[in-house]
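Now for today's protein.

===
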Amino acid sequence: MTAMGATQEPWCDLSNSYRPQAFRVQWASGPWMNQQAHALRRQVFCEEQCLFDGDDEDGIDRHEPSVRSLVALSCLAGQHDEVLGTVRIHEALPGTWWGSRLAVRRDWRQHGKLGSTLIRLAVCSAHAQGCTEFLAHVQAQNVPLFQRMHWQVLDEMVLHGRVHALMRADLNHYPPCTTPFAGFVLTQGVGT
């Protein structure tokens, strides 16, 4: 009951178990996207994996002018709803780009396309910016995914207490994407 004596009805009849069927993967285009992406990184890398104490922000986030956050967004009625995944990219040297901090929310990791589409847009959008080499330090459990996506292992090392592979993308499989703020749209059928 409200102060006026009337009951409030929910504004939407969506079930609590509703799962979005449409997603957009794009460069972050607003403060809320960057804030949610950073919160997701903290959740994954600080709380779940304990790779960093409190925050994973580093000099790349603070000082690298070319750094871009990419986000995987759920869509509700055609509108962006929330960040489900993220990755960042930056140009370390002219033509040499790096991807890092790939994170997908725990309850969406089995979706099967969010992480791979973030990787695809990361490389394709860097390719459109003049990338001639795209590298990443990839956690060991993710190496098979990257290999299926035409990445090659160059070296192995331990970073932050975990085994990582230094990997390079085969740019022949990543055509330039000149519209990274529009990015890619993913849809899935009901029940899939």
